[in-house]
Amino acid sequence: MINVFALQNGRLRQIPIENQGELEQAKPIWIDFDEPTDEERVWARDLFGLTLPDEDDFGDIEASARCFEDASGSLQIRSDFLLDKVDEVRNVPVAFVLRQDILFSLHQEDLPVFRLLRMRARHQPGYLEDCRDVLLDLYATDAEYSADSLEGIYANLEEIGSRVLTAHLTDQDAADVLAGIAREEDLNGRIRRNLMDTRRAISFLMRRRLLSSEQIEESRQILRDIESLDGHTSFLFEKINFLMDATVGFININQNKIIKLFSVASVALLPPTLIASIYGMNFEFMPELKWPFGYPFALGLMVVSVIAPFWYFSKKGWLK
Asked: What are phi and psi of 91, to 5 degrees?
């Protein structure tokens, strides 16, 4: 799908495109390719001399491959944008091309950041002035989206922390807590990677000296916001590690309780084992061998030797 946007009366307006002729007549500042078809790729090549990159080319993490100027003088930027769903968290790669005062963007699925920018630009006149404003605001909106996700991590970790620190934690509860911590750690790591990628792209734009003074100031503000969010991600990593260690500690305590019970049981069963061993010896001259009450006496002695240690251990609180 192809989404074409032009500035009209200071607002970003989406232009419906049905064929190549309508695209040729439009005067866009932003053309967004969402899972482009082969036909739409041909339109980009014929009208703008632009060969859209394949999805396999998005994920190269080398700086030279993610931000560069191609042979035609166009700026090529590869960036990751956060996708935070209830059942799925991913970093979605997006390719940007700045060419002929038009921003081309290419991605394989619609992103919340793009939807939010379109909504803002439609309702706020003067919000955007050119294609570079669109790109910078996409990065600024992505930083806001990452901040919202960090707030969600804070809330989820508070709930997890209350389960770990204020309630009796069974092994099943501990397994659920560890799974929840792992999910929050994965999201926090993806946010950190996303912010790092955004910082690198904005720094590249500033080095190319293509931004106006207002855009440079906006870029610096975005970088300051990212720096602030970096501090939050570091704090969350520490909190996640603390909760992880606390949960593992409770698991060890539960396991130690089980081992303690087995240890107490083995110690308590030693005296009756000793008594049974003594009366199991086959010596001819044993005092109780001919005694009529010898058998019940031995059994009673073994029962008492079991009860006495358990009573003593219970009194000491070792069975709790």
From this structure: -105, 115
